[in-house]
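Re: weekly structure request thread

Next one in the queue (214 aa):
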Amino acid sequence: MLSLFGIPIFIEFGFIIFLALFAMLFTGGEIDLPRMGLICAIIFFSLLVHEFGHALTARALGCDAIRVVLVFFGGYATHTPTTHGRSLLISIAGPAAEIVLALAGVVLINRPAVLSIGPPGAMKDMLQLTIVLNVIWAGFNLIPIYPLDGGHVLFHGLALRLSTQKSMQFTSWISMILCIVVGGFAYQRGFNFVALYCFFFFMQNYSLSREAGS
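Done, posted below.
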């Protein structure tokens, strides 16, 4: 177990497989160990930034028992229950932290002094990967599919007006529709990893819709 800013970090074995699969995806399936290692490092750092966006915001809003867990499908941050308004802010904070990281990459990639660090082209390659990966991950997470951050934002936003049961029911219905649309589009385009995500999310939301409707 690791710890950062006093917040424990748990890494499951599935996360290592997740890193390897994503690295192969971004190298076109080729076994390029140096580039795969760079991609794994960027993904690991980016996910930590994302999850600590949630975790540090939760701490700032008075939550306790905060921890970060990295798993096969990415990661999540847990904390003690709080209000729907605060939970909405915590949900937004993860993608927002990644967008800030991507913007920092955009600023740095235009500075010759930064690009001159290390072997020729290495820093530019790293910054480009950082920008692309964080924009993709933040954008995907903002899709209103539960349990993505966008799904949490949808749920907590609805719960400000509706009952928790009704909010979860509407969220699961919307999530299932979007899983079919996004998953189908991803499958047609050859993004099988995204389609697999959508399949699992659909099944999860199907169970949630039955529970909320009972």
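The chain has a mean pLDDT of 90. The beta strands are 2-4, 7-11, 67-71, 74-78.
Next request, please.
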